[in-house]
Amino acid sequence: MPANLKKNGVGLIAKAWAPDWPDTYTYLPGLVDSRELVEDEPSVNLTVRLPAVDELLDKAAAEPDPETRAGLWRQAEQRVAEEAVLVPTTWRRTLLLRGTTATNLHVSPVFGDYDLATMGVAATAS
Fold it and tell me: Rounded CA gap, 46 and 57, in Å?
């Protein structure tokens, strides 16, 4: 993809990313690991080529201690931010609306929306 983008003079690309689970491991490597960049193949990472970040990603993925691992993820994020190679332009906000007869409401921490598999509707008296 990068060669095609260069050929067509594309400078900025609007993309979205949804992690599989709310953990840094599920989204950061896909966005900033330079090894994800393969010419003429789709990738979420289109511009980040920082060997120091790749090293931090590898260390974080192999680190068993959660606090140490979280610190390594923060270092990788900080390094990418210092280079300003990714620009977050939107932040998703969810407006949760429901009817007054909705029951068993649960907001999924993963998706930030109602869990429709468990949601129900109260029976009305006739």
Answer: 17
Long-range own/partner contacts, residues 50-53 (CB < 8 A, 24 or more apart)? 50/79, 50/80, 50/83, 50/85, 52/79, 53/79, 53/80
CA distance 106 to 125: 24
**Of 14, 43, 20, which Cα lies nearest the Cα of 30?**
43
What phi and psi values does residue 13 have, to the nearest 5 degrees? -130, 130
Given a contact cutoff of 8 angstroms between Cβ atoms, the answer to whether 104 and 120 are in contact is yes
User: Average pLDDT of each block of 10 consecutive residues along the chain (126 residues)?
Assistant: 72 62 78 79 72 96 95 94 78 81 87 86 76
Is the full-model pTM beyond 0.85?
Answer: no
